Amino acid sequence: MMGHQAEKLEELVSSNAAKKSKKTRFIAVTSGKGGVGKSTISSNLAYTLAQKGLNVGIFDADIGLANLDVMFNVKIKKNILHVLKGEASVSDILIPITRNLILIPGESGDEILKYSDSALFKRFMEEAQVLDKLDVMIIDTGAGIGEHIQMFLNAADDVIVVTVPDPAAITDAYATIKTIATLRDDVNMIMNQVKSEKEAVGVFEKIKKVASVNIGGNLNLQLLGKINSDIKVSSAVKQRGLFSVLYPSSQATKDIELIVQKIISKLERNMLVKSTESGLSGLFKRLMDHF
User: Fold this and answer.
1) Is 226 labeled as ligand-binding?
2) Rounded CA gap, 190 and 210, in Å?
3) Is the separation of the CB atoms in 273 and 157 below 8 Å?
4) CA–CA separation, 42 and 67 (whole Å)
5) Keywords, A to Z (predicted)?
6) Ligand-binding site membership of 34 (annotated)
7) 52 annotated to bind ligand
8) Residue 37 counted as an annotated binding residue
9) Is 229 annotated as ligand-binding?
10) What is the mean pLDDT of the chain?
């Protein structure tokens, strides 16, 4: 049954390929445990990428602890599940944040795919084409290594694991990397709330060494960047704002800028890609492929 659904979905996506001029880069941001700043980093990454002129969507795939509405100080009334149930259109749920940046209120992957065999899902795929012009979609997943989280991690082009230099967080981050390594070879890390570049590199190298010994194989674990511990970050969260907006001169904002530059460089190196995997419909096609 699922194979038949995937075929129909493939036909639906392919039938619109001629209209699409680009493929969206899907970047999943995850963590081993909650409270390490995953959503704070996701939202600031999305905003900063949009400020560079890219068309960006940020998909809240952590419905149990959904807080991107708090980060962006907006109210969410309906999400993707309402679209799949026929209670709203895709356009109804999209929330414009700034120029080039759209928030897509989500739902957990396993819940979404319960509706994948209905006529509503086909209508959803057609409506989702309004997002086909996205250059990047940041997927803010739940923490941990649940089955539906793994589905998003498998479907993404890039996976970023966020952790802090705390023994419990590092242990959980390693467990997450170990699970991701069963799905894919490439994993990026962002070290959050560090005192310095030296501390970030030191903690990362310890994780990489343990991973190399115990996971081995072809695992390519890379340090994408670090975010310095900064009281302005927590101050921004309390103000329901982004630190990159409220404190543009802070060290944390400079750190996020460096990470964004690395992401843009990777985007520029990966221009030769299939244009049939665009926007929200492209993401759902991938999720179906991996289901």
Assistant:
1) no
2) 17
3) no
4) 11
5) ATP-binding, Nucleotide-binding
6) yes
7) no
8) yes
9) no
10) 82
pLDDT at 21: 45
The percent of residues in the chain predicted with pLDDT above 90, rounded, is: 48
Residue 144 marked ligand-binding: no
Residue 176, pLDDT score: 93
pLDDT band, very low/low/confident/very high, at 85 (cuts 50, 70, 90): confident
Q: Where are the beta strands (DSSP E) in 195-259?
A: 220-228
Is 57 annotated to bind ligand? Answer: no
> Is position 38 annotated in a ligand binding site?
yes
State how far the Cα of 27 lies from the Cα of 33, in Å rounded to an integer. Answer: 19
Task: Yes or no: say if 104 and 57 are a contact pair by the CB < 8 Å rule.
Answer: yes
User: The domain 1-14+27-139+262-291: what is its CATH number?
Assistant: 3.40.50.300
3-state secondary structure 91-110: HHHCEEEECCEEEEECCCHH
> Angle 279-290/2-14 helices, nearest 10 degrees?
150
Per-residue pLDDT tens for 161-205? 999 999 999 999 999 999 999 989 999 999 999 999 999 999 999
User: What is the C-alpha separation between 164 and 148, in angstroms, rounded?
Assistant: 24
